[in-house]
Write a structure and sequence with these properties.
Blueprint lengths: L2 H11 L4 E3 L2 E4 L3 E4 L9 E2 L3 H7 L21 E3 L4 H11 L3 H9 L8 H6 L13 H15 L3 E2 L14 E2 L2 E2 L4 H15 L6
Helix pairs in contact: 6-7
Length: 197
């Protein structure tokens, strides 16, 4: 069974509506913001590309560099879709969200601990080898807990929590490039000599 067949089977067994991050999936495989209702006067989005471009900005008009960042703009709807198009739409909005969730659920994909991620780095993120656990703890609190809807499973060693039948959790199996960059900035800032007053 491939991942699309798995997804179609899962959808057939789980009645809509279903939440994925800030999204709500409705009958007929429509997608809209979870705080909107499909019967609201929502603006139809003609293509996945248009939707991805729209969701690049948050509700305040600011760029969302982290796709899992809360604050998604409201007032739109996308669909109707078939199960396969729904899969690709969700993967487009939250990159690899379904692949990682299904892989984790079926024990095919496991979280990659931070040390392993850093040991693979040969470029500018290699400096993170010099970061202690306190710094990475701080970075995960500020970035993962403070700015992302995905549940970090690679640092906390915690099992997936908050998974309800009516929702698909956004799992994070490995430190992302956004995290690495922000952690690198924290480390460099910490290492800068303090100016004397």
């Amino acid at each position: 069974m491939n991942i699309l067949e798995y997804w179609q089977g899962w959808l057939a067994e789980n009645p809509l509506p279903i939440q994925v991050g800030e999204l709500q999936l409705w009958e007929g495989y429509w997608i809209c913001h979870k705080k909107d209702v499909l019967t609201d006067p929502l603006v139809p989005i003609p293509s996945l590309l248009d939707l991805k471009l729209k969701l690049r900005m948050d509700s305040k008009g600011l760029f969302r560099p982290l796709k899992g960042k809360p604050g998604m703009v409201r007032g739109w709807k996308f669909g109707p879709l078939d199960a396969e198009s729904l899969f690709y739409a969700l993967e487009g909005i939250y990159p690899l969200a379904l692949t990682h969730w299904i892989g984790y659920k079926e024990k095919i994909l496991l979280p990659v601990d931070f040390k392993s991620t850093i040991q693979r780095q040969v470029g500018m993120y290699q400096i993170l080898e010099k970061g202690d656990e306190t710094l990475i703890d701080r970075a995960t609190r500020e970035i993962c807990l403070g700015q992302c809807l995905r549940q970090n499973l690679w640092w906390s060693n915690q099992p997936l929590i908050g998974s309800k039948p009516s929702s698909i959790p956004l799992v994070c199996l490995e430190a992302c490039p956004f995290f690495l960059e922000q952690a690198r900035k924290l480390l460099l800032k910490k290492r800068q000599p303090r100016c004397s007053a």
